[in-house]
Amino acid sequence: MTITHPPTPGTALWVHAHPSRRSLNGRLFEEGVQELSGRYDVTTSDLYAQGFDPVLGERDFGAGVEEPRNIAELVGAAYSGGRLPTDVRAEQAKLAAAELLVLQFPLWWYGPPAILKGWIDRVLTAGFAYGDLDPDLGVPRRYGDGGLVGRTALVVVTAGEDARSIGARGISGDLESLLFPLTHGVLWYVGIETLDLHVVHDADALDAREVEREVDRLRERLRGVEAEPVRRFRRLRDGDYQGTRALRADLLPGRTDLGIHVLPPG
Amino acid sequence: MTITHPPTPGTALWVHAHPSRRSLNGRLFEEGVQELSGRYDVTTSDLYAQGFDPVLGERDFGAGVEEPRNIAELVGAAYSGGRLPTDVRAEQAKLAAAELLVLQFPLWWYGPPAILKGWIDRVLTAGFAYGDLDPDLGVPRRYGDGGLVGRTALVVVTAGEDARSIGARGISGDLESLLFPLTHGVLWYVGIETLDLHVVHDADALDAREVEREVDRLRERLRGVEAEPVRRFRRLRDGDYQGTRALRADLLPGRTDLGIHVLPPG
């Protein structure tokens, strides 16, 4: 059996991870969902409003495990056995249906808030999001393939810092690298392609007019989202990685930065 | 007023973020705490055992906020006003006392589990961990200075992947970059220096003998921890960053990888 879940055309899932609806994020969420609703059947996961519990624990992998076991394997067995908790199954159903995924969050400590990290920890289980072997190549179906192949994700992130601080040589590290664990390590790992990040800088300092401008900019971006090119991370199955582990020595020799996993243009 | 909390000499805090005490992590936690206890007064935060709630929410920043406000500022005001929840205040007290901090977790989706991310989100509040200006330079006391200066952290991480997959050219990105948001964006930001990562590779595939070897390796590491050199990230106050935002153009010109924030040797 393969674990691919074909998305339902015209369906989108918007995952939102900010505690206050009266915030800039709350506004962008509302307006963004409205904008997409003209063309998509939009489902939402408003994680704070749902009271989503982000702590992967015994109810996910089964109580009373008597000896050391791989947690991911136990959770995968719970998935296959239909024993995952209801909240996780509901999120998996929404994700399985969506061809467009929007992940929207404020940048907290240079990553997603815990409630979104835990949505990833709990929802992207083995057996659902990854775990197959490619039958032709004998390598795992991951990094450009996987249980959720055929989907595109837009990451919408608000940051208190300005474009220089989280830019290419910014003191906090560039945002592309800071979010590599999400765009590459999570999304690309399970087969989801990503569009360019949608970043709102100086998010805590915007005045009312600037907020309106950001609302308009997001709406405009969403209107053209189907036509946007996806990022080109390297695919495991294309043979760029030796024995599935490390980039071949003849590709970008000597470089060790995260940029080596992005396909050169052309 | 400055927000520096001088640590109590000989005090350590070990934060542990794995759901099962019968796991490899549970074993390393127990043995590591025991090893340190010979020389340190060791406090622990066993986040799963404590039932720590990682979701930063209204109890942290105050209910009934009527208009958009900066969450971090609201939480900072709650800190100054003594209104933070009891669980957060308890964690802050432990952290304020510790001169050695150990953060131990399994690598889930290329980052800390949600329960640890949320410990960071909730405990490292403005006013406690950051927020001062340097009186001489007029720049914020962050990146190498801050509320928790004078502390050293050891990050102990178990990974299912092998040393190649998360090595310098590994398919998943190198672990140093994947954890840069933690070592630099969190710890260095608030003034905590870090030691080299302590990584257990292939953590799901170790046999009993290999587990014992990992226990011994951690114990040995801990025995010599005071003598280890700390990492040398660039300090904001040393002037390497123009206007506190981006690395000066004359330093490592043209490079944009995260490695530019590490001081060259010598």
From TrEMBL, chains A, B:
UniProt keywords, alphabetically: Coiled coil, Oxidoreductase
Entry coiled-coil feature ranges: 201-228
Signal peptide bounds: none
Any one of the GO CC terms: cytosol
InterPro entries, A to Z: Flavodoxin_fold, Flavoprotein-like_sf, NAD(P)H_dehydrogenase_qn
Sequence intervals crossing the membrane: none
Record carries keyword Coiled coil: yes
One Pfam entry name: Flavodoxin_2
Domain Flavodoxin-like fold: from-to ranges: 12-222
GO MF term list: NAD(P)H dehydrogenase (quinone) activity
Membership in a protein family: Belongs to the NAD(P)H dehydrogenase (quinone) family.
Name of the featured protein: NAD(P)H dehydrogenase (Quinone)
Source species of the chain: Blastococcus xanthinilyticus
